[in-house]
Write a structure and sequence with these properties.
This protein is α/β, with parallel strands linked by helices and 451 residues long. 39% of the residues lie in helices and 17% in strands.
Amino acid sequence: MTPQPNPQAGAAVKAADRAHVFHSWSAQELIDPLAVAGAEGSYFWDYDGKRYLDFTSGLVFTNIGYQHPKVVAAIQEQAATLSTFAPAFAVEARSEAARLIAERTPGDLDKIFFTNGGAEAVENATRMARLHTGRPKILSAYRSYHGATSTAINLTGDPRRWPNDIGAAGVVHFWAPFLYRSPFHAETEQQECERALQHLEDTIAFEGPATIAAVILETIPGTAGIMTPPPGYLTGVREICDRYGIVFVLDEVMAGFGRTGKWFAADHYEVTPDLMTFAKGVNSGYVPLGGVAISAAIAETFARRPYPGGLTYSGHPLACAAAVATINVMEEEGIVEQAARIGETVLGPGLRELAERHPSVGEVRGTGVFWALELVKDRETREPLVPYNAAGTDNAPMAAFGATAKAHGLWPFINMNRTHVVPPCNVTEAEAKEGLAVLDTALSIADEHTV
Protein backbone atom coordinates (compact mmCIF):
# COMPACT_ATOMS: atom_id res chain seq x y z
CA MET A 1 0.00 0.00 0.00
CA THR A 2 1.36 3.42 -0.98
CA PRO A 3 1.01 6.03 1.77
CA GLN A 4 -0.94 9.12 0.75
CA PRO A 5 0.19 12.30 2.52
CA ASN A 6 -2.51 14.15 4.44
CA PRO A 7 -0.81 16.53 6.89
CA GLN A 8 -4.07 18.28 7.81
CA ALA A 9 -5.65 15.02 8.98
CA GLY A 10 -2.48 14.19 10.87
CA ALA A 11 -2.55 17.52 12.66
CA ALA A 12 -6.15 16.87 13.76
CA VAL A 13 -5.28 13.41 15.07
CA LYS A 14 -2.30 14.80 16.95
CA ALA A 15 -4.31 17.68 18.44
CA ALA A 16 -7.02 15.32 19.73
CA ASP A 17 -4.40 12.99 21.18
CA ARG A 18 -2.62 15.80 23.01
CA ALA A 19 -5.90 17.19 24.32
CA HIS A 20 -7.44 13.96 25.60
CA VAL A 21 -5.24 10.81 25.54
CA PHE A 22 -3.34 9.97 28.71
CA HIS A 23 -0.30 7.88 27.68
CA SER A 24 1.30 5.10 29.69
CA TRP A 25 4.77 5.33 31.28
CA SER A 26 5.01 9.03 30.34
CA ALA A 27 5.21 12.55 31.68
CA GLN A 28 2.33 13.82 29.60
CA GLU A 29 3.73 17.22 28.66
CA LEU A 30 7.12 15.85 27.67
CA ILE A 31 6.07 13.44 24.92
CA ASP A 32 5.46 13.96 21.23
CA PRO A 33 3.70 10.85 19.87
CA LEU A 34 3.87 10.21 16.15
CA ALA A 35 0.47 10.29 14.43
CA VAL A 36 0.19 7.01 12.50
CA ALA A 37 -1.90 6.94 9.32
CA GLY A 38 -1.63 3.25 8.45
CA ALA A 39 0.37 0.04 8.50
CA GLU A 40 0.89 -3.07 6.44
CA GLY A 41 3.23 -6.02 6.84
CA SER A 42 6.48 -4.87 8.44
CA TYR A 43 5.88 -1.15 7.80
CA PHE A 44 3.82 1.74 9.12
CA TRP A 45 3.61 5.35 7.96
CA ASP A 46 2.70 8.80 9.18
CA TYR A 47 0.38 11.45 7.70
CA ASP A 48 3.27 13.05 5.82
CA GLY A 49 3.66 9.80 3.91
CA LYS A 50 6.96 8.79 5.58
CA ARG A 51 7.30 5.02 5.93
CA TYR A 52 9.06 3.24 8.77
CA LEU A 53 10.31 -0.33 8.87
CA ASP A 54 9.05 -1.50 12.26
CA PHE A 55 11.84 -3.24 14.13
CA THR A 56 9.68 -3.20 17.29
CA SER A 57 6.67 -5.22 16.07
CA GLY A 58 4.50 -2.71 17.92
CA LEU A 59 5.48 -3.73 21.42
CA VAL A 60 6.82 -7.06 20.20
CA PHE A 61 3.38 -8.35 19.32
CA THR A 62 2.78 -8.05 15.55
CA ASN A 63 4.32 -11.46 14.95
CA ILE A 64 2.57 -11.79 11.57
CA GLY A 65 2.90 -8.09 10.70
CA TYR A 66 0.18 -5.50 10.32
CA GLN A 67 -3.14 -6.05 8.54
CA HIS A 68 -2.76 -9.68 7.51
CA PRO A 69 -5.80 -10.12 5.28
CA LYS A 70 -6.80 -13.54 6.61
CA VAL A 71 -6.83 -12.35 10.23
CA VAL A 72 -8.67 -9.15 9.35
CA ALA A 73 -11.26 -11.23 7.47
CA ALA A 74 -11.65 -13.61 10.43
CA ILE A 75 -12.35 -10.70 12.78
CA GLN A 76 -14.89 -9.26 10.35
CA GLU A 77 -16.60 -12.63 9.95
CA GLN A 78 -16.75 -13.19 13.71
CA ALA A 79 -18.16 -9.69 14.25
CA ALA A 80 -20.92 -10.44 11.77
CA THR A 81 -21.67 -13.84 13.35
CA LEU A 82 -21.26 -13.32 17.12
CA SER A 83 -19.39 -10.19 18.07
CA THR A 84 -19.36 -10.85 21.82
CA PHE A 85 -20.65 -13.25 24.45
CA ALA A 86 -20.18 -13.83 28.17
CA PRO A 87 -17.29 -16.09 29.23
CA ALA A 88 -19.41 -18.70 31.05
CA PHE A 89 -20.67 -20.15 27.76
CA ALA A 90 -19.06 -22.48 25.23
CA VAL A 91 -18.40 -20.46 22.09
CA GLU A 92 -16.84 -21.89 18.94
CA ALA A 93 -14.08 -19.30 18.52
CA ARG A 94 -13.11 -19.61 22.19
CA SER A 95 -13.09 -23.40 22.16
CA GLU A 96 -11.08 -23.58 18.94
CA ALA A 97 -8.54 -21.03 20.11
CA ALA A 98 -8.01 -22.99 23.33
CA ARG A 99 -7.62 -26.22 21.39
CA LEU A 100 -5.06 -24.77 18.99
CA ILE A 101 -3.04 -23.21 21.80
CA ALA A 102 -3.10 -26.40 23.91
CA GLU A 103 -1.88 -28.41 20.91
CA ARG A 104 1.26 -26.29 20.82
CA THR A 105 2.10 -25.79 24.50
CA PRO A 106 4.68 -28.19 25.96
CA GLY A 107 3.81 -31.18 28.08
CA ASP A 108 0.40 -31.37 29.72
CA LEU A 109 -0.45 -27.65 29.62
CA ASP A 110 -3.83 -28.46 28.13
CA LYS A 111 -6.23 -26.15 29.97
CA ILE A 112 -6.39 -22.51 28.87
CA PHE A 113 -7.63 -19.62 31.01
CA PHE A 114 -8.11 -16.56 28.82
CA THR A 115 -7.32 -13.00 29.88
CA ASN A 116 -7.19 -9.67 28.06
CA GLY A 117 -3.39 -9.44 28.06
CA GLY A 118 -0.09 -10.52 29.54
CA ALA A 119 -0.24 -8.71 32.87
CA GLU A 120 -3.61 -10.26 33.70
CA ALA A 121 -2.20 -13.63 32.70
CA VAL A 122 0.64 -13.21 35.19
CA GLU A 123 -1.79 -11.95 37.82
CA ASN A 124 -3.92 -15.08 37.47
CA ALA A 125 -1.01 -17.50 37.18
CA THR A 126 0.40 -16.30 40.51
CA ARG A 127 -3.05 -16.52 42.08
CA MET A 128 -3.40 -20.11 40.87
CA ALA A 129 0.03 -20.98 42.25
CA ARG A 130 -0.77 -19.52 45.67
CA LEU A 131 -4.11 -21.30 45.87
CA HIS A 132 -2.65 -24.58 44.61
CA THR A 133 0.16 -24.59 47.18
CA GLY A 134 -1.38 -22.62 50.02
CA ARG A 135 1.83 -20.58 50.19
CA PRO A 136 2.23 -16.78 49.96
CA LYS A 137 5.56 -15.93 48.30
CA ILE A 138 6.52 -15.61 44.64
CA LEU A 139 10.16 -15.50 43.53
CA SER A 140 10.97 -13.40 40.48
CA ALA A 141 14.17 -12.29 38.77
CA TYR A 142 15.76 -8.91 38.58
CA ARG A 143 16.04 -7.84 34.92
CA SER A 144 12.48 -8.89 34.17
CA TYR A 145 9.16 -7.42 33.14
CA HIS A 146 5.85 -9.10 33.92
CA GLY A 147 3.24 -6.38 33.47
CA ALA A 148 1.67 -3.37 35.16
CA THR A 149 -1.16 -4.80 37.25
CA SER A 150 -0.71 -4.92 41.02
CA THR A 151 1.07 -8.25 41.43
CA ALA A 152 2.72 -8.22 38.01
CA ILE A 153 4.42 -4.86 38.56
CA ASN A 154 5.73 -6.03 41.94
CA LEU A 155 7.14 -9.12 40.22
CA THR A 156 8.85 -6.93 37.62
CA GLY A 157 12.56 -6.41 38.08
CA ASP A 158 13.12 -3.08 36.35
CA PRO A 159 12.71 0.57 37.45
CA ARG A 160 9.06 0.73 36.46
CA ARG A 161 8.41 -1.26 39.63
CA TRP A 162 9.94 1.32 41.95
CA PRO A 163 7.11 3.90 42.13
CA ASN A 164 4.52 1.08 42.23
CA ASP A 165 6.21 -1.21 44.74
CA ILE A 166 4.01 -1.66 47.81
CA GLY A 167 6.70 -3.64 49.61
CA ALA A 168 4.21 -6.17 50.94
CA ALA A 169 3.16 -8.16 47.88
CA GLY A 170 4.88 -11.38 48.91
CA VAL A 171 7.49 -10.98 46.15
CA VAL A 172 11.18 -11.85 46.53
CA HIS A 173 13.66 -11.01 43.76
CA PHE A 174 16.77 -12.97 42.85
CA TRP A 175 19.47 -12.83 40.17
CA ALA A 176 18.96 -14.92 37.05
CA PRO A 177 21.94 -15.76 34.82
CA PHE A 178 23.44 -13.12 32.51
CA LEU A 179 27.04 -13.95 31.72
CA TYR A 180 27.91 -10.62 30.05
CA ARG A 181 27.13 -8.80 33.30
CA SER A 182 27.45 -11.75 35.64
CA PRO A 183 26.44 -11.07 39.26
CA PHE A 184 28.30 -14.29 40.12
CA HIS A 185 31.76 -13.39 38.72
CA ALA A 186 31.44 -16.30 36.31
CA GLU A 187 33.74 -16.69 33.31
CA THR A 188 31.89 -19.43 31.41
CA GLU A 189 28.27 -20.33 30.71
CA GLN A 190 28.65 -23.46 32.81
CA GLN A 191 29.88 -21.44 35.79
CA GLU A 192 27.09 -18.90 35.33
CA CYS A 193 24.49 -21.66 35.22
CA GLU A 194 25.82 -23.49 38.27
CA ARG A 195 26.22 -20.34 40.35
CA ALA A 196 22.83 -18.94 39.35
CA LEU A 197 21.15 -22.19 40.35
CA GLN A 198 23.01 -22.23 43.67
CA HIS A 199 21.97 -18.61 44.27
CA LEU A 200 18.33 -19.52 43.62
CA GLU A 201 18.53 -22.50 45.93
CA ASP A 202 20.16 -20.38 48.64
CA THR A 203 17.41 -17.75 48.25
CA ILE A 204 14.77 -20.43 48.65
CA ALA A 205 16.53 -21.84 51.71
CA PHE A 206 16.73 -18.46 53.45
CA GLU A 207 13.17 -17.44 52.49
CA GLY A 208 11.78 -20.77 53.70
CA PRO A 209 10.79 -23.34 51.06
CA ALA A 210 7.42 -23.94 52.72
CA THR A 211 6.52 -20.26 52.22
CA ILE A 212 7.19 -20.14 48.46
CA ALA A 213 4.34 -20.76 46.06
CA ALA A 214 6.10 -20.17 42.74
CA VAL A 215 9.18 -19.17 40.84
CA ILE A 216 8.32 -17.10 37.77
CA LEU A 217 10.78 -16.48 34.94
CA GLU A 218 10.55 -15.11 31.45
CA THR A 219 11.84 -18.05 29.43
CA ILE A 220 13.99 -15.54 27.55
CA PRO A 221 13.68 -12.12 29.20
CA GLY A 222 12.33 -9.60 26.71
CA THR A 223 12.29 -5.92 27.60
CA ALA A 224 15.04 -6.51 30.16
CA GLY A 225 17.54 -7.49 27.48
CA ILE A 226 16.86 -10.76 25.62
CA MET A 227 19.31 -12.76 27.72
CA THR A 228 19.11 -16.36 26.53
CA PRO A 229 19.63 -18.64 29.54
CA PRO A 230 22.70 -20.89 29.57
CA PRO A 231 22.24 -24.59 28.83
CA GLY A 232 20.86 -26.45 31.82
CA TYR A 233 19.54 -23.44 33.72
CA LEU A 234 15.82 -23.85 33.13
CA THR A 235 15.94 -27.61 33.66
CA GLY A 236 17.84 -26.89 36.87
CA VAL A 237 15.11 -24.49 38.02
CA ARG A 238 12.53 -27.15 37.16
CA GLU A 239 14.37 -29.66 39.34
CA ILE A 240 14.65 -27.24 42.26
CA CYS A 241 10.95 -26.41 42.07
CA ASP A 242 10.05 -30.09 42.01
CA ARG A 243 12.22 -30.76 45.04
CA TYR A 244 10.48 -28.14 47.16
CA GLY A 245 6.95 -28.44 45.81
CA ILE A 246 7.16 -25.00 44.20
CA VAL A 247 5.13 -24.13 41.11
CA PHE A 248 7.30 -23.23 38.11
CA VAL A 249 5.81 -20.46 35.97
CA LEU A 250 7.23 -19.46 32.60
CA ASP A 251 6.23 -16.08 31.19
CA GLU A 252 6.07 -16.43 27.39
CA VAL A 253 4.09 -13.23 26.80
CA MET A 254 6.84 -11.79 24.59
CA ALA A 255 8.85 -14.87 23.62
CA GLY A 256 5.93 -17.08 22.60
CA PHE A 257 4.21 -17.80 19.29
CA GLY A 258 7.16 -17.98 16.94
CA ARG A 259 9.24 -15.06 18.20
CA THR A 260 12.27 -17.26 19.01
CA GLY A 261 11.95 -19.54 16.00
CA LYS A 262 9.84 -22.10 17.83
CA TRP A 263 6.23 -21.97 18.96
CA PHE A 264 7.42 -21.31 22.51
CA ALA A 265 10.86 -20.44 23.81
CA ALA A 266 10.54 -23.32 26.29
CA ASP A 267 10.83 -25.67 23.31
CA HIS A 268 14.49 -24.66 22.91
CA TYR A 269 15.23 -25.91 26.40
CA GLU A 270 12.96 -28.98 26.55
CA VAL A 271 11.36 -27.81 29.78
CA THR A 272 7.72 -27.89 30.80
CA PRO A 273 6.51 -25.45 33.46
CA ASP A 274 3.42 -25.92 35.63
CA LEU A 275 1.90 -22.70 34.31
CA MET A 276 2.73 -20.70 31.19
CA THR A 277 1.52 -17.18 30.45
CA PHE A 278 1.02 -15.89 26.92
CA ALA A 279 -0.40 -12.89 25.04
CA LYS A 280 0.95 -10.59 22.29
CA GLY A 281 1.80 -12.95 19.41
CA VAL A 282 -1.12 -15.31 20.09
CA ASN A 283 -3.13 -13.15 17.67
CA SER A 284 -0.50 -10.61 16.66
CA GLY A 285 -2.16 -8.05 18.90
CA TYR A 286 -5.06 -7.51 16.50
CA VAL A 287 -7.55 -7.76 19.40
CA PRO A 288 -6.35 -7.84 23.04
CA LEU A 289 -5.89 -11.43 24.28
CA GLY A 290 -3.74 -13.27 26.79
CA GLY A 291 -3.96 -16.34 28.91
CA VAL A 292 -2.55 -19.01 31.17
CA ALA A 293 -1.82 -22.55 30.02
CA ILE A 294 -2.40 -24.84 33.01
CA SER A 295 -0.94 -28.24 33.88
CA ALA A 296 -3.09 -31.21 34.78
CA ALA A 297 -2.11 -31.10 38.45
CA ILE A 298 -3.08 -27.46 38.90
CA ALA A 299 -6.23 -27.87 36.83
CA GLU A 300 -7.21 -30.73 39.16
CA THR A 301 -6.98 -28.35 42.15
CA PHE A 302 -9.93 -26.48 40.71
CA ALA A 303 -11.89 -29.46 39.40
CA ARG A 304 -14.36 -29.30 42.32
CA ARG A 305 -13.14 -26.13 44.00
CA PRO A 306 -14.15 -22.89 42.31
CA TYR A 307 -11.33 -20.82 40.93
CA PRO A 308 -11.83 -17.35 42.44
CA GLY A 309 -10.97 -15.28 39.41
CA GLY A 310 -12.47 -14.14 36.15
CA LEU A 311 -12.82 -11.34 33.63
CA THR A 312 -15.84 -9.95 31.79
CA TYR A 313 -14.07 -10.35 28.46
CA SER A 314 -12.26 -13.63 29.13
CA GLY A 315 -11.98 -15.40 25.78
CA HIS A 316 -13.68 -12.59 23.86
CA PRO A 317 -14.98 -14.02 20.56
CA LEU A 318 -13.31 -11.38 18.38
CA ALA A 319 -9.97 -11.90 20.10
CA CYS A 320 -10.25 -15.68 19.93
CA ALA A 321 -11.26 -15.61 16.26
CA ALA A 322 -8.14 -13.54 15.62
CA ALA A 323 -6.07 -16.11 17.52
CA VAL A 324 -7.49 -18.99 15.51
CA ALA A 325 -6.77 -17.19 12.25
CA THR A 326 -3.28 -16.17 13.38
CA ILE A 327 -2.25 -19.67 14.44
CA ASN A 328 -3.61 -21.13 11.20
CA VAL A 329 -1.79 -18.49 9.14
CA MET A 330 1.44 -19.22 11.00
CA GLU A 331 1.07 -22.91 10.12
CA GLU A 332 0.03 -22.36 6.50
CA GLU A 333 2.77 -19.84 5.77
CA GLY A 334 5.55 -21.47 7.80
CA ILE A 335 6.03 -18.31 9.85
CA VAL A 336 7.67 -20.01 12.85
CA GLU A 337 10.16 -21.63 10.50
CA GLN A 338 10.65 -18.28 8.76
CA ALA A 339 11.55 -16.64 12.07
CA ALA A 340 14.14 -19.33 12.75
CA ARG A 341 15.59 -19.08 9.24
CA ILE A 342 15.84 -15.27 9.28
CA GLY A 343 17.55 -15.40 12.66
CA GLU A 344 20.06 -18.02 11.57
CA THR A 345 20.88 -16.69 8.11
CA VAL A 346 20.30 -12.92 8.20
CA LEU A 347 19.83 -11.26 11.59
CA GLY A 348 22.34 -13.26 13.62
CA PRO A 349 25.18 -13.07 11.08
CA GLY A 350 24.31 -9.47 10.15
CA LEU A 351 24.28 -8.23 13.74
CA ARG A 352 27.55 -9.99 14.54
CA GLU A 353 29.09 -8.35 11.47
CA LEU A 354 27.92 -4.95 12.74
CA ALA A 355 29.51 -5.71 16.10
CA GLU A 356 32.86 -6.31 14.42
CA ARG A 357 32.76 -2.84 12.85
CA HIS A 358 31.22 -0.77 15.63
CA PRO A 359 33.05 -0.33 18.95
CA SER A 360 29.75 0.70 20.60
CA VAL A 361 28.44 -2.88 20.35
CA GLY A 362 29.49 -4.83 23.40
CA GLU A 363 27.45 -7.98 22.82
CA VAL A 364 25.01 -9.48 20.33
CA ARG A 365 22.55 -12.03 21.69
CA GLY A 366 19.29 -13.63 20.62
CA THR A 367 17.53 -16.18 18.48
CA GLY A 368 14.86 -16.18 15.80
CA VAL A 369 13.59 -12.61 15.45
CA PHE A 370 14.41 -11.82 19.09
CA TRP A 371 17.76 -10.04 19.34
CA ALA A 372 19.50 -7.38 21.41
CA LEU A 373 22.60 -5.26 20.94
CA GLU A 374 24.25 -4.23 24.20
CA LEU A 375 25.73 -0.78 23.56
CA VAL A 376 28.76 0.27 25.58
CA LYS A 377 31.18 3.15 26.03
CA ASP A 378 34.10 0.81 26.45
CA ARG A 379 34.25 -2.80 25.31
CA GLU A 380 37.00 -3.63 27.79
CA THR A 381 35.20 -2.39 30.90
CA ARG A 382 31.71 -3.05 29.46
CA GLU A 383 30.55 0.31 30.78
CA PRO A 384 27.04 0.88 29.35
CA LEU A 385 26.69 3.59 26.72
CA VAL A 386 24.27 5.34 29.11
CA PRO A 387 23.76 4.81 32.86
CA TYR A 388 21.10 2.44 34.18
CA ASN A 389 17.66 4.06 33.88
CA ALA A 390 19.20 7.19 32.30
CA ALA A 391 17.02 10.15 31.39
CA GLY A 392 17.49 13.62 29.92
CA THR A 393 21.03 14.57 28.98
CA ASP A 394 22.39 11.34 30.50
CA ASN A 395 20.47 9.45 27.82
CA ALA A 396 21.63 11.66 24.94
CA PRO A 397 23.74 9.00 23.17
CA MET A 398 20.82 6.57 22.93
CA ALA A 399 18.46 9.37 21.93
CA ALA A 400 20.82 10.35 19.12
CA PHE A 401 21.08 6.73 18.00
CA GLY A 402 17.28 6.43 17.91
CA ALA A 403 16.77 9.73 16.10
CA THR A 404 19.23 8.68 13.40
CA ALA A 405 17.47 5.36 12.87
CA LYS A 406 14.08 7.07 12.54
CA ALA A 407 15.45 9.69 10.16
CA HIS A 408 16.54 6.84 7.89
CA GLY A 409 13.18 5.06 8.03
CA LEU A 410 13.70 2.50 10.80
CA TRP A 411 11.65 2.50 14.00
CA PRO A 412 13.93 0.99 16.67
CA PHE A 413 13.16 -0.67 19.99
CA ILE A 414 15.35 1.07 22.57
CA ASN A 415 15.55 0.28 26.27
CA MET A 416 18.28 1.79 28.44
CA ASN A 417 21.64 1.06 26.75
CA ARG A 418 20.25 -1.52 24.31
CA THR A 419 18.53 -1.67 21.00
CA HIS A 420 16.43 -4.74 20.39
CA VAL A 421 15.93 -6.17 16.92
CA VAL A 422 12.42 -7.61 16.99
CA PRO A 423 10.72 -7.33 13.59
CA PRO A 424 7.67 -9.42 12.68
CA CYS A 425 8.28 -13.17 12.51
CA ASN A 426 7.47 -13.10 8.78
CA VAL A 427 9.89 -10.26 7.99
CA THR A 428 11.47 -10.89 4.60
CA GLU A 429 15.19 -11.26 3.97
CA ALA A 430 15.18 -7.97 2.04
CA GLU A 431 13.41 -6.15 4.87
CA ALA A 432 15.77 -7.56 7.47
CA LYS A 433 18.78 -6.43 5.43
CA GLU A 434 17.21 -3.00 4.98
CA GLY A 435 16.94 -2.69 8.74
CA LEU A 436 20.52 -3.86 9.28
CA ALA A 437 21.75 -1.20 6.86
CA VAL A 438 20.01 1.53 8.86
CA LEU A 439 21.37 0.13 12.12
CA ASP A 440 24.83 0.33 10.57
CA THR A 441 24.32 4.07 10.04
CA ALA A 442 22.80 4.68 13.48
CA LEU A 443 25.55 2.75 15.26
CA SER A 444 28.08 5.16 13.78
CA ILE A 445 26.41 7.83 15.93
CA ALA A 446 26.69 5.58 19.02
CA ASP A 447 30.36 5.02 18.19
CA GLU A 448 30.99 8.73 18.68
CA HIS A 449 30.36 8.25 22.40
CA THR A 450 32.83 5.41 22.93
CA VAL A 451 36.32 5.68 24.38
